[in-house]
């Protein structure tokens, strides 16, 4: 199982459609896409600034914003299906479909997840990877560091990932990779760990 976080910043780029087609074609029920928040999460930030609601409320709304982006992604490629629970993920996997995770129900049921802006879709993707015993976690961003491998600490310092990401990948059995939006071209023949090692930036966990 591979968990792939698609950044909200890819919305409106030509690369997004290529990534979705790639996953739809090669998933065979083994890829779960985690949507970012993108413009929907930006709307939550604006709403919080205007309403002065708590971070806990804003966090709930931001996770629901991921649901919205996920529904949008599914609407861009009819081969993609959505899932809200582990059971639905398993069922879609048995159907050999490419899956988009709508996280709000599962995240709301786990009170151990901090409800603030330090935990965004990056950490939630890592949380899901651990929960599903995934082999790989991929973060597809608009940009990635030129150096490889890189550390979770440096990514957090540079605000490429959220402030709690290192905690969520620490101790995980999965390998973590950072990819740029243009890297879809390297997987035209399919997805493999060998390709990841050639193309992706391996992310080292916080010591």
CATH homology superfamily name: Acetylglutamate kinase-like
Which spans have pLDDT < 50 for at least 5 consecutive residues? none
* Main sheet summary: 8 strands, mixed
CATH architecture: 3-Layer(aba) Sandwich
State the total count of DSSP E strands. 8
Distance N to C terminus? 25 Å
CATH topology: Carbamate kinase
- Estimate the strand proportion: 15-25%
Number of folding domains?
1
What Rg do the Cα atoms give? 16 Å
Number of H/I helices: 9
List keywords for this structure.
207 residues; alpha/beta; eight-stranded mixed sheet
Summarize the structure in short.
With about 210 residues, this protein is an alpha/beta fold.
Write up what this structure looks like.
It contains nine helices and eight strands. The protein has a single domain, classed as Acetylglutamate kinase-like (Carbamate kinase), CATH 3.40.1160.10. The protein is of the alpha/beta class and about 210 residues long. Helix content is about 45%, strand content about 15%. An eight-stranded mixed β-sheet has the order 3-4-2-1-5-7-8-6, with helices on both faces. The protein is globular. About 45% of the residues are buried.
Chain-wise SSE layout:
Elements: E1 2-6, H1 14-26, E2 31-35, H2 38-51, H3 55-76, E3 80-83, H4 86-94, E4 98-101, H5 104-108, H6 121-131, E5 136-141, E6 150-151, H7 152-157, H8 165-169, E7 175-180, H9 193-199, E8 201-204
Helix pairs in contact: 2-3
């Amino acid at each position: 199982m591979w968990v792939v976080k698609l950044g909200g910043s890819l919305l409106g780029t030509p690369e997004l459609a290529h990534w979705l087609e790639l996953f739809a074609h090669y998933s065979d029920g083994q890829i779960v896409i985690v949507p970012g928040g993108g413009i929907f999460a930006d709307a939550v930030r604006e709403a919080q600034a205007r309403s002065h609601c708590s971070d806990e409320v804003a966090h709930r709304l931001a996770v629901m914003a991921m649901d919205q982006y996920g529904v949008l992604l599914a609407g861009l490629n009819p081969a993609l299906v959505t899932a809200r629970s582990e059971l639905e993920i398993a069922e879609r996997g048995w159907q050999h479909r490419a899956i988009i995770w709508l996280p709000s129900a599962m995240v709301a049921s786990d009170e151990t997840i901090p409800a603030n802006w330090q935990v965004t879709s990056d950490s939630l993707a890592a949380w899901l990877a651990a929960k599903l015993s995934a082999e790989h976690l991929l973060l597809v961003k608009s940009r990635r560091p030129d150096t490889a491998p890189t550390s979770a600490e440096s990514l957090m310092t540079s605000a490429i990932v959220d402030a709690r990401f290192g905690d969520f990948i620490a101790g995980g059995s999965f390998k973590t990779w950072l990819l740029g939006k243009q890297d879809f071209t390297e997987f035209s023949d399919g997805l493999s760990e060998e390709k990841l090692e050639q193309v992706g930036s391996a992310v080292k966990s916080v010591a």
